[in-house]
Q: What sequence folds into this?
């Protein structure tokens, strides 16, 4: 399959970073799920909103957002990463929960089912942009990235769509995690 997707098209003079927008959508979906489930965990929706916002800020260069808070809206800058942000968000959520007298385990149980859903959504633009591309392959579903701005090599070689594998893996992880 040949993929000729421009990972950073422009809307006028403003570059649109699909990867960044994908993570914004992932965050909003996870936030919606968590707010919906909050009462079943004995938490107020307002408390959840504060934790969700804290997660987004910690995941995305918290020092920059503290010194330049308007940068939260600059999704075209990219730089969204998952693993470091998740660890930082867990630590920040723990500190926040303790300061608000929220049982951290209850809040973590509430957020846990939404994390793989958000991760799965984030894999879609990652795959389209050729980020974290796989090794060369001859399988029929291998992807050839042909756009010059793709993060994957533009060498005509089919590669495993690892982002798609991760997408299904994330959804599979979501299955056994209970939610109300």
A:
């Amino acid at each position: 399959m040949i993929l000729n997707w421009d990972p950073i098209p422009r809307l006028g003079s403003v570059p649109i970073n699909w990867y960044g927008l994908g993570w914004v959508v992932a965050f909003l979906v996870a936030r919606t799920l968590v707010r919906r489930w909050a009462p079943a965990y004995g938490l107020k929706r307002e408390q959840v909103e504060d934790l969700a916002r804290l997660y987004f800020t910690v995941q995305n260069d918290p020092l920059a957002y503290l010194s330049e808070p308007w940068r939260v809206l600059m999704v075209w800058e990219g730089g969204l990463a998952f693993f470091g942000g998740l660890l930082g968000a867990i630590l920040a959520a723990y500190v926040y929960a303790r300061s608000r007298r929220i049982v951290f385990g209850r809040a973590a149980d509430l957020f846990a089912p939404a994390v793989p859903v958000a991760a799965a959504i984030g894999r879609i633009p990652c795959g389209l942009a050729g980020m974290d591309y796989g090794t060369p392959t001859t399988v029929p579903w291998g992807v050839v990235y042909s756009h010059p701005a793709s993060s994957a090599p533009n060498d005509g070689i089919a590669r495993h769509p690892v982002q798609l594998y991760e997408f299904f893996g994330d959804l599979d992880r979501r299955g056994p995690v209970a939610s109300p």
